[in-house]
Design a protein that fits this description.
463 residues; seven-stranded mixed sheet; Rossmann fold; six-stranded mixed sheet; 14 helices; 3 domains; Four Helix Bundle (Hemerythrin (Met), subunit A)
Length: 463
């Protein structure tokens, strides 16, 4: 049965089941059962050793196949009543031994005794339909499960636990209050009740607009926060970009050869530094003379990588003892306000050289493994500063929410202008209704089937 056509049909009609842990060999696997028949199905296949399955108690027992009475596994079971469960329905969780065969056999027993295999996101979908979570919280639950960026994860926790709901509640409360005042103004004009030029309301609306703009601004800054921290290696051909990247990775990922222009395409590789996901990007060397057509394509790709880089490492060959010739590249980085650091390479080739670093230049030798830790520490510190900037304020990563919030801001600005200048009650009521409509779109009180399908189809089975 299609998940997105069952909003009215599924409720109290059937019980779903699915493993909520990966289908791999492990110590423990968990299978979740949700629906009005979950207790009946549990009692048909689960036999506790000592006590009955009281809510929230962990009970040990055995799973017995009702068809042949064979014991399948020794398990733990927890029952959650619908008022306290994740889905808003009677829910059981079974903790089995982590054999893929055991889990598959258990799912088969469940489906033969009244369960239907859950579709992707159906547990969270039921939680939404039963009023356990708002739609926007469901979407940030997806971020909690799938994202690797620590800032996004922390922000998603804030949203799921209600931080964003404070703003939405303040908006709804002010809409209700202003609508009530307008109704009194229309019906009881002799009481002189209105909000035009009312300093209290004007001040509250202005404050609310400021709060909304703060989140929109933070969201714009964190738009790429869900992506790894991107470090780009830039410089002339044969300056040592690929060698340095391989040294940081600890293995050979890029081809290293003494012929200039070996790297013709963008080569990317991920690693984790201090619990932060880093994307290292090796680029084609940039030179202005004696370039082939293929090399020119690689150079153009290099320039395009600057549009979304977080840190640019500009490499200079210390052994050649010459000034940095790619001044135009540095100027391009500065125009894009991208962060950059100079890195001198091949310092082992300099006679009587004492390696040292300055605040904007790191000296390295990939051959001798000099300066590699300094580069790593520099990347870690820059990623920490970037993460700190993102983490300061609540932000949204969902374009649907950001677009609705931008519309709400626009409507409030129009309302503020009307309150001060126009004094048009009908237009005011129109904008208040539009704000209510956008809030409903965010929370899911008014949402179409197409959007629901787009949201919940991304979830894994079991969530």
């Amino acid at each position: 049965m299609n998940l997105y056509n069952i909003l009215k049909q599924y409720k109290n009609n059937y019980t779903i089941c699915a493993p909520i842990t990966p289908a791999i060999k492990s110590a423990i696997s968990i299978v979740r059962v949700s629906g009005r028949k979950s207790e009946i199905i549990r009692d048909k296949i689960f036999y506790p050793y000592k006590k009955k399955c009281k809510p929230f108690n962990v009970v040990r027992g055995v799973i017995v196949n009702p068809d042949n009475k064979n014991i399948m596994d020794d398990v733990l079971c927890v029952f959650y009543p619908k008022s306290k469960s994740y889905t808003g329905e009677s829910l059981c969780e079974f903790y089995l031994h982590g054999s893929v065969t055991i889990v598959n056999n258990f799912i088969k027993i469940l489906t033969l005794n009244g369960c239907v295999l859950a579709e992707p996101g159906e547990f969270t979908f039921r939680a939404f339909v039963n009023g356990k979570v708002d739609l926007y919280k469901s979407e940030y639950i997806y971020d909690l499960v799938n994202n690797t960026n620590i800032s996004v994860l922390r922000n998603s926790v804030k949203i799921v636990t209600g931080k964003f709901n404070i703003l939405l509640t303040n908006i709804k409360n002010l809409v209700i209050e202003l609508s009530s005042v307008l109704m009194m103004s229309v019906n009881f004009t002799e009481n002189d009740v209105n909000l035009f030029n009312n300093k209290t309301y004007i001040s509250r609306i202005s404050t609310l607009i400021g709060n909304i703009e703060g989140i929109i601004k933070s969201s714009n800054f964190a738009k790429h926060a869900s992506k790894p921290f991107k470090v780009v290696f830039l410089g002339e051909p044969n300056v040592g970009k690929s060698s340095l990247m391989n040294s940081i990775l600890g293995y050979e990922n890029s081809i290293v050869y003494n012929l200039p222009g070996t790297t013709r395409d963008i080569i990317e590789s991920s690693l984790s530094l201090n619990n932060c996901e880093i994307l290292l990007t090796d680029t084609a060397g940039i030179r202005t003379r004696n370039t082939s057509e293929i090399e020119k394509i690689g150079i153009e790709k290099t320039r395009r990588t600057l549009t979304d880089s977080n840190l640019n490492l500009l490499l200079l060959d210390a052994s050649e003892n010459k000034n940095f010739r790619l001044q135009h590249l540095r100027n391009l980085i500065l125009r894009k306000k991208s962060n950059f650091c100079f890195v001198k390479t091949k310092i082992d080739l300099i006679t009587n050289h004492l390696p040292f670093n300055t605040h904007n230049c790191i000296h390295t030798s990939s051959k001798m493994n000099w300066g590699i830790d300094a580069i790593k520490n520099y990347i870690i510190n820059e990623s920490k500063m970037y993460t700190k900037k993102i983490s300061l304020n609540l932000f949204l990563t969902n374009d649907r929410h950001i677009n609705s919030l931008k519309k709400i801001r626009k409507f409030w600005k129009s309302i503020l202008s009307i309150c001060i200048f126009d004094k048009n009650e009908e237009v005011l009521i129109f904008y208040l209704q539009r704000i209510s409509s956008e809030i409903d779109k965010i929370t899911g009180n008014f949402i179409n089937e197409k959007i629901l399908k787009s949201i919940f189809s991304k979830f894994c089975i079991g969530k």
